[in-house]
Amino acid sequence: MDETTVLRYTAFSDSPTGGNPAGVVLDAEGLDERAMLRLAAEVGYSETAFLFPARTASTSGQLLAGIRYFSPRAEVPFCGHATIATAIAHAERHGPGTLQLQTPSGTVEVTSRVEHGRLVATLTSVPPHVSPVAEGDLAEALAALRWSYADLDPSLPPRVAYAGAHHLVLAARTRARLAELDYDFSRLQALSARCDWTTVQLIHRAAPDLFDARDPFPAGGVYEDPATGAAAAAFGAYLPTVTALQLPARLTIRQGEDMGRPSILLVDIPASSAQGVSVTGTAVPLPS
Predict the structure, then answer these.
(1) Which site among 8, 33, 108, 115 is 20 to 30 Å from 132 CA-CA?
(2) Are 70 and 48 in contact (CB under 8 A)?
(3) How many other CB atoms sit within 10 Å of the CB of residue 63?
(4) Helix, strand or coil, per DSSP, at residue 92
């Protein structure tokens, strides 16, 4: 286990100074849960992905592989930025193609390809769903964030969205409100654990197809994520349920700018709500 190779990539940016860093283990055979959690804590990023390579390909010729995701504190059911990082790291060593990833949440397809001279990857989530948020949970979330109901954008009501992991979605009325992130970590951590929220996705609509986002991740022991692919997929499921969005549609999410790690996530929403939401980005290695 001490010889396990942990790669370090940043996802949803083409610069090492942007995006969300992730650890990637391309061959996790022989690692148990305790070893994976230890490695994730040693890496110290919000997520580390552990790939269990398939011994055979699927009937369609795509590679089947198991994958698990660990924050420094615990396992999470799905992580988008670590999936993109894994796909790019795998493509750099084995060539572009499609991986069928068996995640704890279900099968996630991720395809890597070369565009404009660089590798990009697109993941397609498990079938998503959106549900109301209990009034008491919403009130507690706002109190933990030190927000008021007046800070919310009434045109984008609060919901809990799922595309492999659950995220509370809250829309800020102003960009200034989004920029002033100062929350009670322990209080939001306790609420997230009780409600099974992986992150709280805070958004502001800059244009009909452009959104700014910030994602507190206290459930994973992380104050804020600079790029959250799982939350982006969940947001893609959320938006058509609260707006008259013509489908299919593509959205752009800007995240990490307030942290000094700018990230771009492209979200493709299918015509059918029964289909998974796709999230596209690139990833680059980090200096060792």
Answers:
(1) 108
(2) yes
(3) 16
(4) helix
